[in-house]
UniProtKB/TrEMBL annotation:
Organism per entry: Salix brachista
EC number: 2.5.1.18
Keywords noted in UniProt: Transferase
Top-level taxon of origin: Eukaryota
Protein name: glutathione transferase
Length: 222
C-alpha cells in the first residue's frame, strides 16, 4: 500500500487550508504534521529550504511548495473530482483568476498589519480587487467555474473569508459590504455551505480572537 502523503502546515494559515480543501474534495487520505513557525522544525527546513514556510506537501519523499502549486499538483496526480476544467480555454481562464487572487489578494493580509495612511491604501487596493472579481470573475455563476467548486474558488476562498475575519479583528470599518459586492457575498455564502469546506474551515470566532491578539502584539512591539 502506498504511503499516505503528508501536509506540513499550521491551521491558522489560509494557504494551508487551500491544500486541505483540495485533498478533502478529492477524498485523499493524508497525514497532517502541525508546524510551529516560531520554532521551525528540521522537517520543514529540509523540505522547504528556500522559503522555510508552510504549506509543504510531501508525496513520498518529494516535496511540493506554495499552496496553489500544490493544489494543481494534487489535481494532476489524483484526477478524480477535477478542479481544473478540461477545455483549454476554460483552464486558462481558471489559471488567470488563480493568479489574480495570488497577486491582488495580498492586500487583504497587509490590512491586518497596517494603520493610518498605509491601512487606507490597503483598503483601496482591496476594494479594487473585490470590484474586479465582482464584475469580471464570478459574474452570474454560482462558483468561479460554474456549478461546482474549482481551482479559482480554492484560491479566492481564504482571501474573502480572511477579509471577513480581518475586518472584524481590526474594527476599522467594513470593506466587504453586501450592497457593494452582492455577487461575491452570494459566492462566499455558497462556498462556505459546501460540506467539505464547512467541515474544514477555520472557526471564525477563534480566528478573530487570534488576529486581534496578534495585532495588539504588533502594536505593542512597535
Amino acid at each position: 500500500m502506498a504511503e499516505q502523503p503528508k501536509l506540513l502546515g499550521t491551521l491558522p494559515s489560509p494557504f494551508v487550508h487551500r491544500v486541505i480543501w483540495a485533498l478533502k474534495l478529492k477524498a485523499i487520505p493524508y497525514e497532517f504534521i502541525e508546524q510551529d513557525l516560531t520554532n521551525k522544525s528540521p522537517l520543514l527546513l529540509k523540505y522547504n529550504p528556500v522559503h522555510k514556510k508552510v504549506p509543504v506537501f510531501l508525496h513520498g519523499d518529494k516535496p511540493v511548495c506554495e499552496s496553489m502549486i500544490i493544489v494543481e499538483y494534487i489535481d494532476e496526480v489524483w484526477p478524480q473530482n477535477p478542479l481544473l476544467p478540461k477545455d483549454p480555454y476554460e483552464r486558462a481562464q481558471a489559471r488567470f483568476w488563480v493568479k489574480f487572487a495570488e497577486d491582488k489578494g495580498t492586500a487583504v493580509y497587509r490590512m491586518f498589519s497596517s494603520k493610518g495612511e498605509e491601512l487606507e491604501k490597503t483598503k483601496k487596493e482591496t476594494l479594487e480587487m473585490l470590484q474586479t472579481a465582482e464584475e469580471h470573475g464570478i459574474g452570474e455563476k454560482k462558483f468561479f467555474g460554474g456549478e461546482s467548486i474549482g481551482i479559482a474558488d480554492i484560491a479566492f476562498g481564504p482571501v474573502v473569508y480572511g477579509l471577513e475575519i480581518i475586518e472584524e479583528a481590526i474594527g476599522e470599518g467594513a470593506v466587504f459590504e453586501a450592497h457593494r459586492f452582492p455577487r461575491l457575498h452570494a459566492w462566499i455564502k455558497n462556498f462556505k455551505q459546501v460540506p467539505v469546506i464547512k467541515e474544514n474551515l477555520a472557526e471564525r470566532d477563534w480566528m478573530v480572537t487570534l488576529f486581534k491578539n496578534r495585532r495588539e502584539a504588533l502594536a505593542g512591539s512597535a
